[in-house]
Specification:
two-stranded antiparallel ribbon; globular; about 250 residues; 2 domains; Cytidine Deaminase, domain 2; alpha/beta
Length: about 250
């Protein structure tokens, strides 16, 4: 009887320990690198849950900080999420499922920690700051990656990464807003081999090297045109007073 009680006490303590997730101290990151396995998982999540609808999917990103201020996103998992299309303030994020999933994931790879979260977007929404606050319990400044999974609308890289920054208004109220950070797609040697095998079934074998170079140039010009359009829209809104003037953005232009 005493052994059973001791075992039950140990089991309860173990469960309590498992539910406590450590808070990762954010490190300054100048680049976010998303691995191919993460992209495949997000696309699979979207196709299973929201394909053919206006819904979006949400999940948690795992990874680690590497040298040269780079944040490596190496893994992810889906989290049940619902939001009201008419009322953006009404939404549900299953944080209990999130904690249980991470406890299982860290038993597989102890190096991977909670780095942030992802959304299939394609744009940032009003309630995303509130969602970001939930992940701040696990990371002092989580990264938010918007992954555009709609192929017909995609030009260039499918990911955009954001961190949050505190801002104080004229009345002294503190609020947070998203700031963009450069992102890229990267892979380990093992992942590169796997991706090459997948691309063999996707690439057009009849496409010659010249036609491929031309198509790459066309895609590059489309990306440039989209960026110039975005810059023009920003400058027009600054000129008519809709948006405030920001010298840092103008310097980047």
């Amino acid at each position: 009887m005493e052994i059973d009680l001791n075992y039950k006490t140990w089991l309860i303590k173990q469960k309590m320990t498992d539910t406590l997730l450590e808070t990762v101290e954010h490190q300054e990151s100048k680049m976010v690198v998303v691995h191919p396995t993460v992209l495949l998982s997000i696309v699979d999540h979207y196709n299973r849950i929201a394909s053919g609808t206006t819904k979006r999917v949400v999940g948690v990103l795992l990874g680690e900080y590497t040298d040269n201020n780079v944040l490596d996103i190496t893994n992810c998992y889906a989290v049940p999420f619902e939001e009201d299309a008419q009322e953006p303030e009404i939404w549900f994020f299953d944080h209990i499922y999130h904690e249980q999933m991470f406890n299982m994931m860290r038993r597989i790879n102890g190096k991977e920690r909670i780095m942030g979260w992802y959304s299939s977007g394609p744009q940032i929404k009003r309630n995303d700051i509130q969602l970001n606050e939930i992940l701040r319990r696990n990371n002092t400044n989580p990264v938010f990656v918007v992954c555009n999974v709609q192929e017909d609308q995609q030009i260039g890289l499918p990911t955009e990464a954001f961190f949050t920054q505190e801002e104080v208004d004229e009345d002294g109220n503190i609020s947070r807003h998203f700031t963009h950070v450069p992102s890229s797609i990267g892979a380990t040697d093992a992942e590169e081999v796997a991706v090459e095998h997948l691309l063999r079934d996707i690439k057009d074998a009849a496409q010659g090297s010249l036609s491929k170079q031309v198509s790459d140039k066309v895609m590059g010009l489309k990306v440039l045109a989209a960026k110039l359009k975005e810059m023009r829209e920003y400058l027009e809104k600054v000129a008519d007073g809709s948006w405030p003037y920001n010298q840092s953005i103008i310097n980047n232009f």
